[in-house]
Amino acid sequence: MSLHADRSQRIVVLPDNRIWSERKDGESVCALETIPGRLESSFVRLSGGNLLDRAGEDLEVLLLEGLLEVGGRDWPTGSYLRIAGGSGLTLLSKHPSLLFLKSGQFPEEDRKSAGLETSGARFSPGLVPGLSVLPLFSGGTANTALVRWDPGTIFQPHRHFGGEEILVVSGTFEDEHGAYPAGSWYRAPHMSRHHPFSTEGCLIFVKTGHLMESNAA
Question: What domains does the chain contain, in order, with CATH numbers?
Answer without folding.
Answer: 16-116 (2.60.120.10), 124-208 (2.60.120.10)
